[in-house]
């Protein structure tokens, strides 16, 4: 059974002028020890989805569907059960470490808090655990006495990761963990996340707008646009051989990790993401799509199989699948025709051989 299953999850914000559909019918799963990347532009719904996983959304948000964490529906949990799950079974690295840390409390106190709240350690043991966690994320133990303003952006992000690891959760959600960090520090933080996930067997959901970063860290990718998943599959295939035109555009918009030449060739995507309150008819991406067809404004395409373990919500994928099925049918018909022809030829040959044998027998009798 999967560690995490999302079944038709939707999130709608209620505001004075109406309802805003931020997430629309997302279904995904994550196995233990695996890493899933969720990509998309600002406003695609990826961070809202991340917050919904642990019910961290504001009160004006209405969440539908099911979010199963180890078989237990997060949306149906009592407040006490949910409090026990947060940090202990699933934790989160919030976007922007400068806003995720209390500016008037020392770093060590904040890392120890989840341990004390869940009664996993007494104060002395918690202090030792804090020192171990700081060492794991590459910070000296004496930093536990520092305040957030005394740390650099990269160091604060490492502290956030240490907090997420404090209770040894099975799942970590990292919401844009490299936001506002310079390139060198980004690389260090990403390397740290990869190493910790691999060493400790933690499942990871990582949110980012940069497809190349996710492809480097995660096993699978889900690309979101206008609140929906438009492509899902193995990270390398989605990044290098995207089937949805939005995934291709997103991949081309950023340099590739480890490829210096790609820095010279990023390509922008024209247009703007749609207003969630006034989504285009049919496929939401069609106003910006370079390969849109006449039917796209009227056809709301669902996710279609796009290869082994892959899906994509595009009319071209559906057409390719139909064409492939037609080709397979034609091949089967051709094979049947060839078999029938071979059988007929064999029968004719047998009849001819029988006739020759009969003539020979009559001549001998004469």
TrEMBL record:
UniProt main location, coarse: membrane
A Pfam family matched in the record: oligo_HPY
GO biological process: peptide transport
Keyword Disulfide bond: no
Subcellular compartments: Cell membrane
SMART domains: AAA (SM00382)
Residue ranges, compositional bias (Low complexity): 325-360
Highest taxon of source: Bacteria
GO molecular function terms attached to this record: ATP binding; ATP hydrolysis activity
Spans annotated as Disordered: 325-366
Keyword list, A-Z: ATP-binding, Cell membrane, Membrane, Nucleotide-binding, Transport
A GO cellular-component term linked to this record: plasma membrane
Membrane topology reported for the UniProt record: Peripheral membrane protein
Residue span(s) of domain ABC transporter: 4-251
NCBIfam families: oligo_HPY (TIGR01727)
Entry similarity comment: Belongs to the ABC transporter superfamily.
The protein, known as: Peptide/nickel transport system ATP-binding protein
The organism's taxonomic lineage, starting at the top: Bacteria, Bacillati, Actinomycetota, Actinomycetes, Streptosporangiales
